[in-house]
Amino acid sequence: MKPLKRFAPSHYEIQVDGHLDAGHSVWLGQLTLRRGRAVTSLRGALADQAALYGVLSMLQTMGVVLLAVSRLEDTE
Q: What is the pTM of this model?
């Protein structure tokens, strides 16, 4: 895995408890939402660490329970 750079794009997976509506993707950095039995996974590229913190802040504002945040191996 490449070293993490604060101001570079990276791919993430964020897991939250419960189901988020697909319409929330626009508010959450255009991440792809995938709904499991009781968990929603948000995956995709974010511009930098500030964008990641923005998504996490939005999830907190929505009252969503955060389960996990993982940086994924870049596919490019």
A: 0.84
